Amino acid sequence: LLSRALTGNLVIPDFTAFCAEITRMFDAVRDCRDGEVAAYIPQLARADADGFAVAVRTIDGQRFAIGDTATRYCVQSTCKPINYAIALDRLGVDAVHRHVGREPSGHSFNAITLNAAGLPHNPMINAGAIMCASLIAPEQSAADRFDTVMQTWGALAGEGAVGFDNAVFLSERDTADRNFALAYFMRENGAFPDGTDLKATLDLYFQCCSITVDAPGMATIAATFANGGVCPLSNDRVFTSDTTKNCLSLMASCGLYDFSGEFAFTVGLPAKSGVSGALFITIPGVCGIAVWSPRLDALGNSVRGVEFARRLAGRFAFDGL
Ligand code: DON
To answer: Structural domains in the chain?
Structure first.
């Protein structure tokens, strides 16, 4: 960072002006009280409806955060691209996509639907994420599989930023009829690898949704994706550049559920949302941005998160920073 700063090669040269713009957008969006906190999982319903944080991390390590930046929120569906990337890195594209498609579904995130090949439509919706969980080290014990996932989150975000909310996990598992239904429907269609343990797979999926992170940590994760899979904090490679590219492609086409096409049209950046109000946005080659605000629109995306992303895209072209 220092040598880039000294040689005038920072990816966002006038970071102070950039942060002032981010602050203006944060202030404008904060007044919005539209939407409802997700209530289908009891623990999620208890989230602070007006909580709000935005954090930025550039690929060369500059950072900024505003709002409830110390709050750890559960990541929910923002775990989906990470599980997909873990599976891709371990098994490769062909093996992963024998079990999950890569087209938008056009349906809600928990719809009971499979593609023409009898597979979940893509890794960014529940069925596809349950499938990806089944592909993460199935030969290992439940404890080792969870460790594999947590170590990856630590490497992506920096160790101190990541935790686990056991109450959310238990609440999630107790109210998961739809996810059980999706898993049995996929098994009925022969979608899983032979020998898949459905209960262990679903537990891992619920555990991943119950990981917690603060907004600066999530911004670092987004920045790692923006940086081709190398964490800008540690300079360690977490995912291959191919895995990162494939993951960003599916975030761009499928990352906001049923709103993905409209988001691609209006914002045009790879992103992923979750029902906790989490949203992370990747600006490849520039930075990662995390937004957290629990009030959701009818499709399950953070109202302030989507509005912030719209303003961001309207304000910056990201080619002439
Ligand atoms: O019901 C589930 O599977 C969730 N706990 C994960 C969902 C999620 O974030 C989907 N969201 N918009």
So the answer is: 2-91+141-175+197-315 (3.40.710.10)
Q: What share of the chain is helix, strand, coil (3-state, %, to 5)?
A: 50, 15, 40
CA 229 – ligand 1 centroid, Å = 25
3-class secondary structure, 49: coil
How buried is 108 (Cβ within 10 angstroms: 0-12 exposed, 13-18 middle, 19+ buried)? middle
What is the reported pTM? 0.96
d(Cα 171, Cα 206) in Å, to the nearest integer? 9
Give me the helices (H) in 2-69, please. 2-6, 15-30, 42-45
Under a CB-based contact definition with an 8 Å cutoff, are residues 281 and 302 in contact?
no
ipTM over 0.85: yes
Cβ < 6 A, ligand 1 pocket: 76-77, 109, 126, 172, 179, 209, 273-275, 300
What whole-number distance in Å separates Cα of residue 31 and Cα of residue 187? 46
SS3 268: coil
Which residues 6+ apart lie within 8 Å of 8 measured at CB? none
Kindly report the protein residue whose alpha carbon is nearest to atom 3 of ligand 1.
126
Spatial separation of the C-alpha atoms in residues 259 and 266, rounded to whole Å: 11
- Residues 56-110 have pLDDT tens digits of 999 999 999 999 999 999 999 999 999 999 999 999 999 999 999 999 998 888 9
Which residue has 């520039």 as its token pair? Answer: 286
